[in-house]
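From: lab user (bench 3)
To: helpdesk
Subject: output format question, protein + calcium ion

Hello, I'm new to running complex predictions and I'm not sure whether the block I got back is the full result or only part of it. Here's what I submitted:
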Amino acid sequence: MVATRAGSVLLVGSLVGVGLAGPSSATASSSGAAGVEHRVATASSQFVPPNLTLVAGDTLTHTNLDVLEHNVVSEDQGPDGSPLFESAIIGAGDSAPVEGVEQLEPGVYPFTCVIHPAMSGEVEVVEPPADVPQVLLAPVPGAFQLPVAMAQHPEGDDLYIVEKTGTIRAVRDGLLFDPVPVLDISDEVSGDLEQGLLGLAFSPDGDLAYINFTDTAGDTHVVEFEFDDGVLVPESRREVLSVEQPFTNHNGGTLTFGPDGYLYMGLGDGGSGGDPEYNGQSLDTRLGKMLRIDPRASGDDPFTAPPSNPFAPDPDDPEKVIPPGALAEIWAYGLRNPWKFSFDAETDDLWIADVGQGDWEEINFRGAGSTGGENYGWNHMEGLTLYPGRPEGAVEPEGHVPPIHVYDHEGGSCSVTGGYVYRGEAIPSLQGAYVFSDWCDGRLRYIRQENGQASGETELGVTVPSISAFGEDHDGELYAISLGGTVFKILPLA
Ligand SMILES: [Ca+2]
Ligand SMILES: [Ca+2]
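Helpdesk reply: Thanks, we reran it on our side. This is the complete output you should expect:
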């Protein structure tokens, strides 16, 4: 799969390079290198996803996750009267190729199920991208112990790498590994796969640093330090908040200051599997949430919730309706494990990669104008469909914000690792693309967003084993972090 994709990218790139872009490149691509394999599922008598974007020459497979028999059949016919594309009728758990898709010219093609004509979907076939970015991965100096996050101080070019084992290490000016940790709480952290020191954010003025870790009992803590002389000052330590964790997994971990100057924090549903405590949809717990706080102490309060939060009392708006018991610090809910999220440095849009249960990995998108309160659906929804293990009788929540992009676990993927929208200058053809990966397959890929709709995935043709995180520097350049101990800067190939 990786080799196929890389080959296809290189072919397209080389065709463009010799001036064969245009209609001829689509033909060359479909008759030459194999295209990317896409998948459409049928579940709950729907096509998932209902709309697909393919590059000419790509292939499509139909997987039936429903109890009923289905197929995929084009509504349009060719000159001989047969459908332009069609899969065999298959039963639950089976997959079949959708024959003919790889021959389609650019255009939009509605399809249905021959047995259930009420089901509908659409394939959009587009020309191969004129300029697929070609990148390489350059290791940043230093050997790191289980790195899981990166932050850059607002001043200067030092990179701060968060090690799950409880230390933070600096790469001075992005070039020189500093062997002395800038923080060491390794005797305080727990060590399961999703536990440890997980997040770091510097205050916008650079005077304070906030970390997120799970303690030896597994509970989450956000702690504030003064930042001075390139280190987190141990004596200045102050607890901002803590969250009891019922299970070792799904602890979220990312901390980042939003464009509004508030601290955002992603928290998983508590863990185990299927959200047994029903935390995602409960507004009286911090678990399964995105929090938004002013992390500075105010009187006896170790932090405050901005009145503009959806469930926070607002002195300027006495009519504001707040559900009983809803926590003021909640910004959004219905999340399973938002391990990584980020803001677009140019547009301020919020991107949340939410790790899925068994079937679907999610990329969620919310535009900069959001006033919060989004319900991302878990545990009623997984991806675009009802979660099979949802509480009895549970339906799609009112106002559910569906993911902008989903992918399944075919081909060895298992758990989304969210990244950033690229706003650097080194790779012009990557400008504006949301770059992300998957913990199990490590393949770097991107989608593009326009009017709240995402394009299909495009692969960058490079792989980072055990990819735990991405990082972004002041120049908008991106980094990919392997839990194995290497931090890579993503650079143009030429
Ligand atoms: Ca947990
Ligand atoms: Ca969701």
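A quick orientation on your result: The chain is about 5% helix and 35% strand. Let us know if anything else is unclear.
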